[in-house]
Backbone:
């Protein structure tokens, strides 16, 4: 993989248009098939992730095109401050070419430089992202469980 065309950046609110486009293009496709046709809901969700005082958003660019985004927040915990990744995606046609590996390594490096102690994220165990994170040294937390209740 030629990494000279990639640029890693910390993003702010001025990138929301390109973030929305990338996010919808990835998560509206297989295996997620999420319906983000409600633009008001999409805008509110991206704002929830990127527009808070503790938000931390990273982007990976190929030239001027955003090909990767990580949206999350800083969380203070008893064992140290951590980056909680709410959403991470790589443009579909770029997946499997090393961009995701480069991106996660840059995120880890930057978080470490910021003095953060952990990175925490959730993913489903039946999607390709599960194997991606396992391969890169992330541990499945066997003693934790995610709960949800439809109202």
Residues:
């Amino acid at each position: 993989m030629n990494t000279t065309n990639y640029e890693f950046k910390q993003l702010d609110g001025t990138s929301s248009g390109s973030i929305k486009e990338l996010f919808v293009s990835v998560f509206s496709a297989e295996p997620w098939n999420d319906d983000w046709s409600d633009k008001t809901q999409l805008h509110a969700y991206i704002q929830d992730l990127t527009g808070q005082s503790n938000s931390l958003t990273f982007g990976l660019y190929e030239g001027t095109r955003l090909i990767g985004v990580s949206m999350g927040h800083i969380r203070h915990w008893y064992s140290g401050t951590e980056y909680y990744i709410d959403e991470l995606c790589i443009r579909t046609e770029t997946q499997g070419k090393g961009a995701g590996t480069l991106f996660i390594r840059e995120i880890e490096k930057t978080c470490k430089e910021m003095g953060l102690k952990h990175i925490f994220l959730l993913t489903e165990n039946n999607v390709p992202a599960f194997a991606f994170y396992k391969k890169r040294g992330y541990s499945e937390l066997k003693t934790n469980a995610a709960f949800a209740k439809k109202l």
Notes: The CA atoms of residues 67 and 93 lie 9 Å apart. The first helix runs from residue 16 to 27.
